[in-house]
Design goal:
single chain; alpha/beta; Rossmann fold; globular
Length: 371
């Protein structure tokens, strides 16, 4: 995947926000930083762009939830009616803000575009800044000192806050990339969550993905042995001595982030999804250079009742890419004006509309493309 640029991407990149360090390599995004489908019919009229812009202005409000040391902050967009579903968008790894952007060069605004698209279909969303980052800096003094379990606690707080704020009977967890792993772990704690929307979510353990991403590029040969040894240690719950580690790997395995990596490496997303009793949508773009189709199929195998939507010409940030060229794919990561690929909003909204009884797994109009 993006193993070719692993060293260049991470070396010296810690990430800064407002003069303080933010979580850059803390989540090494082995899943994010190594760097159209047919639409089912909808029973709701799509709003025009002008209507959508006006709706975004009229219906956008700020919302917060309690964190360990201060408030967690987010943005709610949509009608927020007691009769309409609410989707909590859980961001991917690294210093990713509520809109899906980060100071390391990703500016696709994926989560903002998701929120706007779903609002046009009368689905309210809440998109959030993670603990210790951006507007949620007060929630913890050290954004690197977190675990997946900490994020699960925060999602629990968000679900309670949304329910209290809106009274909505239907709350869905939408996890993007690493956020899908958090959603899987968080839902085990909440019986009142309707179901899961797993978008570009790994089906394999993070350590396994990182090994793959490092190994596929011959340019990583000089550091591969050391990197694989570090992954082995972290998977076994042991910290890694970085004294003699190659400088090219320090961004990935620096001591400050090893606690999180140990936590992340311990979770098996497919195992979390086994015997899951609620509706699940697995949405995967077939031009994704970070999470592959095999991951979506592993998740589908773990939950045969889940709905699998494979979207041709859709990449990791849910933009349309018609080329196999790496540069064309990555260029979309920095273009907030580029809309989401056709089929993305339709897949999510149609699934919610068909499954939003929170009691059954009635299949929506989307079907596995078989690609």
């Amino acid at each position: 995947m993006l193993a070719a640029n692993l060293v260049a991407w991470w070396e010296g990149e810690a990430g800064w926000q407002g003069g303080r360090s933010v979580k850059g390599a803390d989540h090494a995004d082995v899943l994010a930083w190594l760097l159209l489908a047919r639409s089912g019919p909808s029973r709701k009229r799509r709003k025009t762009v002008k209507e959508l812009v006006k709706a975004s202005t009229d219906m956008e409000t700020f919302i917060d939830a309690p964190g360990p040391h201060g408030l967690l902050k987010g943005t709610m967009l949509g009608p927020a009616s007691k009769h309409d579903p609410v989707v909590l968008i859980i961001p991917g790894s690294g210093p990713t803000d509520r809109d899906g952007n980060n100071p390391l060069g990703i500016n696709a605004s994926t989560y903002r575009l998701l929120a706007e698209g779903l609002a046009a279909r009368n689905i309210t969303t809440v998109r959030i800044d993670k603990r210790g980052l951006f507007a949620s800096t007060a929630a913890t003094p050290d954004p690197n000192a977190v675990t997946i379990a900490d994020y699960v606690t925060d999602i629990d707080a968000w679900v309670s806050a949304i329910r209290q704020h809106t009274g909505a009977p239907s709350i869905w967890l939408l996890g993007h990339s690493e956020g899908g792993l958090v959603a899987l772990a968080a839902d085990k704690k909440r019986e009142d969550v309707c179901g899961l929307l797993l978008v570009s979510t790994p089906g394999r353990r993070a350590g396994e993905l990182l090994r793959e991403q490092l190994s596929v590029n011959p340019a990583n040969a000089p550091i591969l042995c050391q990197a694989l040894s570090a992954i082995d240690s972290l998977e076994n719950g042991n910290r890694v001595d970085t004294t003699n580690m190659s400088p090219a790997l320090l961004g990935l395995f620096r001591p400050q982030v090893q606690g999180f990596l140990i936590s992340e490496f311990s979770y098996d997303p497919a195992l979390l999804l086994e015997n899951y009793p609620k509706p699940v949508l697995i949405l995967q773009g077939l031009r994704d250079i970070q999470v592959r189709e095999i991951d979506a199929r592993i998740l589908k195998q773990a939950d045969p009742q889940a709905m699998l939507a494979l979207l041709p010409n859709v990449n990791h940030v849910l933009k349309h890419v018609a080329s196999d060229e790496w540069t064309d794919n990555v260029a979309t990561y920095a273009d907030p004006e580029l809309p989401l690929a056709p089929g993305v909003i339709e897949a999510i909204s149609d699934f919610i509309e068909k499954s939003d009884v929170c009691l059954s797994k009635e299949l929506p109009l989307w079907v596995d493309s078989g690609l």
